[in-house]
């Protein structure tokens, strides 16, 4: 390994942690919009035990757990599956291309969460703090 590669590898867990935090913050907003009409107005109103309501709960609770980095691997695996399910239920019937069926974000979240399920939380996480203790 060259000195440049070695010095850059120190930043990998930090970059991974920042990616997790930002992605989780953006993702949990989908759940808060579905459940509480915040920050987007007009998205809530579905019964809590409907498919839309359960998706909102998964997005909100899973997003918060990912944000703080607690139980990252199993939560990310569940959310990856939710996003795959969302793509095939809501977007794929509208056509093959994610660009045309507006499923790009579901695909990106699916594979991003699959990455966190395999790689873990990175830095700045409760999981990392628990490992040190």
Automatic annotation (TrEMBL):
<keyword id="KW-1003">Cell membrane</keyword>
<feature type="transmembrane region" description="Helical">
    <location>
        <begin position="75"/>
        <end position="94"/>
    </location>
</feature>
<feature type="transmembrane region" description="Helical">
    <location>
        <begin position="49"/>
        <end position="68"/>
    </location>
</feature>
<dbReference type="Pfam" id="PF07681">
    <property type="entry name" value="DoxX"/>
</dbReference>
<dbReference type="InterPro" id="IPR032808">
    <property type="entry name" value="DoxX"/>
</dbReference>
<protein>
    <submittedName>
        <fullName>Putative oxidoreductase</fullName>
    </submittedName>
</protein>
<keyword id="KW-1133">Transmembrane helix</keyword>
<comment type="similarity">
    <text>Belongs to the DoxX family.</text>
</comment>
<feature type="transmembrane region" description="Helical">
    <location>
        <begin position="106"/>
        <end position="126"/>
    </location>
</feature>
<keyword id="KW-0812">Transmembrane</keyword>
<keyword id="KW-0472">Membrane</keyword>
<dbReference type="GO" id="GO:0005886">
    <property type="term" value="C:plasma membrane"/>
</dbReference>
<dbReference type="InterPro" id="IPR051907">
    <property type="entry name" value="DoxX-like_oxidoreductase"/>
</dbReference>
């Amino acid at each position: 390994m060259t000195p440049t590669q070695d010095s850059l590898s120190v930043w990998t867990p930090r970059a991974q942690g920042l990616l997790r935090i930002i992605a989780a913050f953006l993702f949990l907003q989908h759940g808060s919009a579905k459940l509480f009409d915040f920050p987007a107005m007009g998205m809530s109103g579905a019964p809590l035990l409907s498919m839309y309501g359960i998706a909102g709960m998964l997005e909100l609770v899973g997003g918060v757990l990912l944000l703080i980095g607690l139980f990252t691997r199993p939560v990310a695996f569940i959310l990856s599956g939710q996003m795959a399910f969302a793509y095939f239920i809501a977007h794929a019937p509208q056509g093959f291309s994610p660009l045309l069926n507006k499923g790009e974000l579901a695909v990106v979240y699916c594979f991003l969460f699959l990455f966190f399920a395999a790689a873990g939380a990175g830095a700045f996480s409760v999981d990392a703090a628990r490992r040190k203790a």
